[in-house]
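BUG: 3D viewer hangs when loading the predicted structure for this chain

Environment: internal workstation, default settings.
Expected: structure renders.
Actual: progress bar stalls at 90%.

Input used:
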Amino acid sequence: MSDQTSNGGFDTAPVRRTPRTEFYVYFAIIFVAAMPLALIAWAIAFLKNGTLANKGPVARAWSQARIITPMIFSA
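C-alpha cells produced before the viewer hung:
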C-alpha cells in the first residue's frame, strides 16, 4: 500500500497566473497605440458610408486591445 499522507495526495505544482498589473499595463499601451488607427478606420468608414458605424473609435481600439493582449501572454 502506498503512503498518501505526504503532500496530502494533492498535486503541488504551482498554478501559473498572469500578473494583473502587467496585463493592464500591456493592455493600456496597446489600447493607446490602437486608438489612432481605429480613429482613422472609423473616419474612413464614415466618409465612405455617410453614417456613423455601430462601433466608434474607442470601441474599436478597446476590442483590438482585448484581442491582442492575451495573445502576448499566451505566447
